[in-house]
Amino acid sequence: MPRFFRSLFGQVVLALILGVLVGFLWPDTAAKFKPLGDGFIKLIKMLVPLIVFCVIVHGIAGTGDLKRVGRVGVKALIYFEVLTTVALVLGLVLAFVFQPGVGMNVDVHTLDAKAMSAYVENAGKLSGGGFTEFFLKLIPTTAVSAFATGDVLQVLLFSIVFGCALSLVGEKGAKIAGLIEDLSGILFKTMGLIIKLAPLGVFGAIAFTVGKYGIGSLKQLGMLVVLYYAAVAIFVVVILGGIMRLSGFSLFKLLRYLREELTIVFATTSSDSVLPQIMAKLKRMGIRDSTVGLVIPTGYSFNLDAFSIYITLAAVFIAQATNTPISMTDLLTILAISLVTSKGAHGVPGSAIVVLAATLQAIPAIPAIGLVMVLSVDWFMGIARALGNLIGNCVATVAVAAWEGDIDRERAHAVLDGRPVADDMELGLEPAAPVGAVAA
Fold first, then answer.
1. H or E segment and range at residue 95
2. Quick one: which of 93, 141, 159, 217 has the most CB atoms within 10 Å?
3. Quick one: average pLDDT of 202-208?
4. Sign of the CA dihedral 375, 308, 340, 262?
């Protein structure tokens, strides 16, 4: 067997190709493989709360400097808000420049409102209560319930409080800190075992989605999909690429380093499916535990760059497709509301459509029923959303770590160049192939 297919990346690529073929040739049979993708994602999500807890607590307790942890948190939030705003504005600008919905002349009375019922109901829950309700949701009913529900932000809050307390008790908490460090190592080893099932998960997910959706639904709304992919590509290459350069690193080397995770996300359209592996790889780059533990989980709810582009682009598209004039006040309202609604997206079923519905509820001028048009291509756009969000959070972690001086630059360059480092096996990761190497 060629060396390429002995690697996890090669196996995932092979599974991706086979999944597309099965979905295209035997769509009815392909639907039966859906449990493979769902099961793989559930296995990963099973570990997420405990890994987040261990990484954050160990990082804070090991740092011993709560002021440093506070600085990282504040800098991360500032970074998130700035990049989210840039992404929202980019979506608006591209929608007005290329006008993907102009000429469709859709009559809103011909759209099926039943398709939107479940999403509108969830949108009401998401947008109700404003800032107060949002922040109250961050607090779990009990410490155990945060882990039971798998709510990353609730686990994050409890982990920060617990880590700070453990740091403050000093030597009395040494045994607990050591136990959490050991548990973290075991969890990452467990994650390494589960990630070997990625080819099966990718095959099941991509076979099902190709079999169910095909490519027919792209024809009518092709311009919107193409423009969205172009917008995400521009944001990643220009904006995130520039941030990586300012941080002293190469975006393309980072993307190559994360190629396995990006391929899995491409097939599953879920960045949750690689969260533990991403945290392990960023730690391997020499980024401090506490920084990885704070930025990545927080970014999954507060730093949804590609998601933000989608909200404003789709909102303007619906207005154009339904011949609805929108004013500058409406545009500013879209921006303001999107900054809030996008923060509650993670973990909400059908989050993209739900958040878009919640945004449009605040702008009566745009008919929310127009979301029915976007439903048919939401999965295709979901691929770029998941990839863009994941890349954005990885770049955010590198940027904040560089800003705070929490990254071992020599080690990071070695890892990104494909040179092995001492603790690869400890983290359950395969050493990267050297840059420019060709698989046999």
1. helix 66-98
2. 159
3. 81
4. positive
User: Tokens in use for 88?
Assistant: 């929202």
Q: What's residue 105's pLDDT?
A: 65
Q: Is the pLDDT of residue 388 over 90?
A: yes
The pTM (predicted TM-score) of the whole model is 0.75
| CATH of residue 245 | 1.10.3860.10
Q: How many C-alpha atoms does 249 have within 13 Å on its Cβ side?
A: 33
User: What are 407's strand-pairing partners?
Assistant: 287
Are the C-beta atoms of 202 and 15 separated by less than 8 Å? yes
- State the helix-helix crossing angle for 259-268 and 275-284, rounded to 10 degrees: 170
Residue 287, beta-bridge partner list: 407
Spatial CA neighbour of 306 closest among 131, 128, 153, 84: 84
Pairwise CA distance, residues 29 & 179, whole Å:
47
- How many CB atoms are closer than 10 A to CB 427? 18
Q: Per the domain annotation, does 336 fall within a domain?
A: yes
- Tens of pLDDT, residue by residue over 242-295, are 999 999 999 999 999 999 899 888 887 777 778 888 988 999 999 988 888 888
Q: Does some domain include residue 254?
A: yes
Rounded Cα gap, residues 297 and 294, in angstroms: 6
Q: Is 432 within a domain? A: no
Total domain count for the chain? 1
* Residue 428 within any structural domain of the chain: no
The pLDDT confidence band at residue 414, using thresholds 50, 70 and 90, is: very high
